[in-house]
Every structure is written in structure tokens, then in C-alpha cells.
Amino acid sequence: MKNKILISAAFLTALFLSIGISRSLIGNYQASPDVKSSKPAASEKPDASAKPDKPVALSKDTPDADPKIQTSLKENEKNTENTDKPAAKEEKSKEDQKPASAGSTKKTIPSANTESKKSEANESDFSSNHGQESNVLGNIPMKWIPAQRVLAGAPPTHLSLLDAVERFDAEGSFGTPGKIDPDKLAFSVIAPKESSIVKPAIEGSNLILRWGELQAGKEEVIVKIDYPDTRPVYLSFFAEVWRPNYIWMFATVIGGLGLFLFGMRNMSDGLQMIAGNSLRRMIAIFTENRFLAVGIGILATMLIQSSSVTTVMVVGFVNSQIMALSQGIGVIMGANIGTTITGWILTLKIDAYGLPLLGVCSFFYLFSSNERIRYISMIFMGLGFLFFGLQTMGSGFIQLNELPQFSLWIRSVNADTFPGVLKCVLLGCVLTMILQSSAATLGITISLATIGALDFSSAAALVLGENVGTTITAFLASIGTSVNARRAAYFHILFNIIGVCWVVCIFHSVLLPIVVSVAHVSPDANIAAGIALTHSLFNITNMVLFLPFTGLIANFLTKYVKDTGTSGTEKHALTTLGIRHIETPVIAIERSRVEVSRMIRGCVDLSNWLKQIEIGHYSDERLINDSFKIEQDFDNVQDEVITFLADLMSKGLSVEIADAAREQLRMADELETVSDYLISFLKSNLKLRDAGLALPPQENEDFHRLHDALADQLKMVQAVFATRKGKVDLLQELYSQRKIFTLQVKQIRDRFLKRMSEERYDPQVIVAFNTQLNAYRRLREHIQNIAEAMSNVH
């Protein structure tokens, strides 16, 4: 327990330190509400006579309707309305100190001489006050100009000060509102006087910010505005020059993507552990009902959180002849719908709660002794990692989006036209092929759309391309497999390509209007929900269109995708197990179970072939060769199953799956030994045949009885393993037959020894008799060991 506490404390300390460091490094980028402005060239000068509607103009290229500026202006306007003017208090005369009559109002404007003296006093105390933010119209700066943040080497920024004056004029800061004379305004820069970051200068009614090229940093700019008979007004804002750290940007995006994928894996593993039994039963149930096949594909993919793994599983099942091609087609269509749940998970508004969720659940995962609670904690830890990764990835993209080169490139990804839609589809396809994960590409798309780098139409077109790109996984898994497995992979490709082709034709006219109206998508809201809805709508509609033609599609693929002879369906060696299956333990244990089942079937077939060979007096050379081949394949089968299960057991498994893996390991070893003993009968009798000898007829009949009894036991093992029922009954049955079988072996040996004293036998016959009798005795013991492994008896 002490070790667990120490490990947990070290883990949490490292986690919080890494979070603190990452926050301090990228906090300036993701926490700043500043609005970036575009800058005109130094030679361009704004028209001083023009008076825009907005109180503050940033630059020629800054959108006037920027919601961040509007919010800032509204908040400051409310503050200004509640402000008393200090001049009114300071300039009250003795006559004015008498109580005023009800309903009367009086406003005193200080004289120019009095204001001049107070202005000098204010400027002397300015150094102690200029860093504060206040809504008092006096010597404390007013932050009515948004902060300016530019990339190093940017051209000068032109800001119109008349807009700020108009704003104050509306509040009565310069006398009677609306009657200000612009020619009497005087502007001067108070700070900074000397700076290598920014050099502000006044040109007419414009403020020119000339940026430094060598040093990055932030300075506060303060501008004084004088007008006759009024107190001076000071405007303040921050000016920042930044330099891109390409290594940090790349690391932030890749790190966020890694956290995102790790969260997906944790969430998937937790879901599989919780729903392991149900998922395994779903995988084992395949019927000709196409609707049930689609449902199984949807549910399995929702639990696995990967359509690629589901389609690879289908290719493997079709390759092993466990599933028909038409069944596989239904599961693949369901998998395409099930994978859309990822997009809806990403629409949850819990970005800010990702880290707290991760931290709280980690305690339950580390310290709880209840396995179910630990797996539920793993699910929510994965959810926390997922959203923290999405937020981190978005922070990196925000920085990248401020780079002119990246901003220019991302704007070229535009789906406003038909060629633009095709371009976005191709880009999404290629990116998904590279990442081998449609979920990862979807996360990137949502991140870019959320920060405004991508518009909704471009993001939706990228999602269509991601559906095509994800088919590469199943295609790669089908290489070297049976023709039916390749047909299943080709259907996955056709299903998505044909679907994308017809949806692209109605992209602007039908799809986008439906999604926008249903999800209420706008440039500033519900973009993630719109992307998820596009993904779901595409796959559901595509499935509805394809489902009635499942049989026709299967016939078409059967007719035109021919078996080239490079891969056959009669391969006994394992070729369908791969490292990708290990990523999903629930699927992996079922895949290895399929191969163990094939080994049992191979032993039953081998025992039947040996009896046929003996009845035919060892004249069927083809059957003899097949028997030797299946025994050789069993050696490869055992090696591949043991390697696969050893890799699987190195992962964190639930108790149930770990027990199943150990069971299959023992069974694979015992079944390989059974095949060795079965083939030893054939080798022994072939040696006698080649020497012109044979076992005595009585011994042959005795061996036939033993062979039939053991063949029946193998068939019982096969039936119990297939149905997963009656394991205890099978073991008790074998225990009860043990004494009977041992007695039969002893009687056969005693009779043969008695006849040896009466008849003369060739030494080779005696050796063959002893070899086969011992082999039968050992064979029964190994069949019993298989039954014990199935019942988890050690």
C-alpha cells in the first residue's frame, strides 16, 4: 500500500508540474482575449476625415463587427455611465454647496487655467497610477483601444484616434456631446518613451505603431488627449511583438494529438472491460439477418471506438470462413455508423473540466480495489485525456493560425466551389491514410474549425474525405488473405467512395442547408455539432441506400473479384492474427479462440483421416500427404498462437480475458501434442507397410476401439468449446472414463504378451504395437488436459 501511495504521489506531482509548465509556456497564447489586427503598409495612411461607426478603429483590415471588440466596448460603456467626474467635486464653489432644489441639475466645467494646474499635478503623479485600469475620466488611463499583437517584422500599424475621441465625446468628456472641434484636439504619446519593441508616433489624428524586428515582448502604450477647457484624457493599451517557436508549436500539436489518441484508447479499453461479455457474445453471433449484422457493427464499434478495428475483425472472420461475405457487409456498414459517436463525444462542452475529471478519476483508478470501479474510472480518465488533448491541440493550432504562411495555406482549403469540395475531400482522405485513424483526423478538423481557421463547409468536406481514408486499414489487412476477405475489404472501399461521390453532388444544395438548419450552425456557434451531424447523416443515409442491395453487392463482388490462387481458403497456418488485433483485447481473445477452434477441428479431421487410411490399407497417397501437412501446420499454429497470446498477456487485461488467454495457451500446446500422437500412428503403420508387415488382426481391432473412443472424446471437446457450455460435465465424463480406458489398455497389453509366448512376431511388429499402445494412453491424457484447461482446472 505504501508503494502505491508513493507511486501515485510521484505521478500526480509530475502531472501537475507538467501542467503548470505547459500553462506558463502557452498561457499567453490561449488565455489572452486580445484581438489581432491586420496592418497596412507603412506607406498607406488612413483618411483622417473619415469617421467610422465604431468607437475604436484598429486598422484598415480589421473587421468592424469583431464580437470581441464589441463586447469590450459594451462593458466599458457600462462602466463609464456609472462614473462621477472628479472635476465636478473639486470645482464646487461655496455658493454651490447649498442644497439644490428637487429635480434641478447643475454641471460645472472647470476653467482652462484651473485645469492646466491640475493637469500638471496629475502628470507628476502619473507614474504611480498609469498601470491601473479604471473607468474614471481623469489621469488614470482608459483602455478603450484593444491590445495589439503582431508577428516580429510586421509593418507599422495605423490606428485612428478620432474614433476614441468620438466615444468620449458621446459621454460628454470634452464638453457638450456632439459639438467637439477635431481641429482643437491635441494628441501626444506619454509611454513608452524609448522601447525596442514598439515606437508609437502621432501623425495628425492617427497613432502609428512601428514594430521592432529583433526583440519580442510587450509594452504598454499610453496616449494623452488634450482639449480646451477640459481635463486631459489618457488612452492605454498593450502592444506585443511575438516570435514563433516552431518546435514548441509542433510539439504542442503533436502532444495534444497524442493525448487525444491516448484518451481514446483508455476510454475504449474501459468500455471493453465493462462490456466484455456482451461484446464477446455479439462477436460470436452472426446471422443472415442483415439488420442484426448492422446492429452488431454499430454496437461493437461504439464500444471499441474504432471502425478500423471492426472492419479488420470482419476481414479476419470472413477469411476464417466464420462469417459469410453478406454478413460481413452488414457489419461493415454498421461500423461506419458506430464510429460517428466519436464526433458527438467531442461536441460535449467539458473542455475546462478535462483536467479535473482526469485528476479525480485517477485516484479511483489507482486506489480502488474494485475492478469494475477501476474500469469505470478508466473510461472517464480517457474522456479527460481526450478533451485535454483536444484543448492542447487547439492551443497549438491557434499559434500556427497566427503565422501568415499557415493562415494563407489554411484559407486555400475552401469548399465554396465544387473543385474546392473535391480538394477538401482529397485532403481529408490523405490525412486519414497517414494517421491511420479517422478519430484523430476528426479531432484535428474540429480543433481547426473551433478556432476559426476552417469554415464549416470546408470542415464538412474534410469529414467526407476522412470516411474514404479510413478504408486503407481494412485494405492492408486483406493483403495475403482469402478471396472472400479481400471482397469484404473492397466493399468497404466501394461503400465509402460511392457514398462520397453522390453526397458531393448535393453538398451545397442539400447537405449543408439541412445540417445548418438542424444544428443551428453559425460561424461562432455549434460548428462541432454541425461536423458531427454531417458525419452521422452521411453514414446513416449511405447505409439506408446500400442495405436493400446487400445480396446483389455480394454477388457482384463474388463475380468480379476472382481468386488469383495466391491465397487459398484451405490454409491451416495462422495468417489472420496480427499485432493490430492486440490493440483490442476483447477482439483479440476471440480471434485466437477462432484459431484454437480450428486446431480442434483439425485434430478431429486427422483422426477421421487415419481411420480411412487404415481401412483403405494405406493406398490413398493424397490423404496421407494431407495428414502429414496438417501436422506440420499445427507446429506453426502453435507458435503463432503462443506468440500472439504472449503479446496480448503483456497488456493490462481483465481477469476474465487473462483467464481465457491462459486457457487457450494450454489448449494450443495440448492440441499440437495430440496431433503429434495421431500422426505417430500413421508413421508406425507406414513403416510396417514398407517392410511388408502388419499388426495382427486382433490387435488391429483392439486399436480401432481405442481410436473410436478417443475420436468421440475429441468431438465432445469440439462441441463444448464451440457452445461454451457443459465444461464441467465434459471433465466429469472424461474422469469417469479414465479407469475404463486404463483397464482396456492393460487387457490389450496382457493379451498381446500372452500371444507372443505362443506365436513368433517380427521385432518391428512388437515395437509398432508398443509405440501405438503408449501413444493411445498418452493421447487420452492430453485430451483430459484440454478439458481441464477449458474448465480452468490446474
Give the overall shape, derived from the CA principal axes. Answer: elongated
Give the overall pLDDT as a whole number.
76
Strand content: 5-15%
For the sheet with most strands, the description reads:
4 strands, mixed
Beginning-to-end CA distance, first to last residue: 30 Å
| Secondary-structure-derived class | mainly alpha
Which descriptors would you attach to this protein?
794 residues, mainly alpha, four-stranded mixed β-sheet, three-stranded antiparallel β-sheet, 30 helices, disordered N terminus
Walkthrough of the structure:
- This protein has 794 residues and is mostly helical.
- It has helices at 2-30, 67-81, 86-90, 112-124, 126-129, 162-170, 246-274, 276-284, 290-304, 307-319, 325-338, 341-346, 354-367, 371-401, 404-412, 418-435, 438-450, 456-469, 471-478, 483-505, 507-519, 527-546, 550-560, 579-582, 585-615, 621-649, 655-690, 697-723, 727-758, 763-790, and strands at residues 148-151, 157-160, 186-191, 198-203, 206-211, 217-226, 233-242.
- Residues 1-138 and 566-573 have low confidence and may be disordered.
- It starts with a helix and ends with a helix.
- α10 packs antiparallel against α11 and α19 runs antiparallel to α20 (483-505).
- The chain has a four-stranded mixed sheet, with no helix packed on it.
- The chain has 30 helices and seven strands.
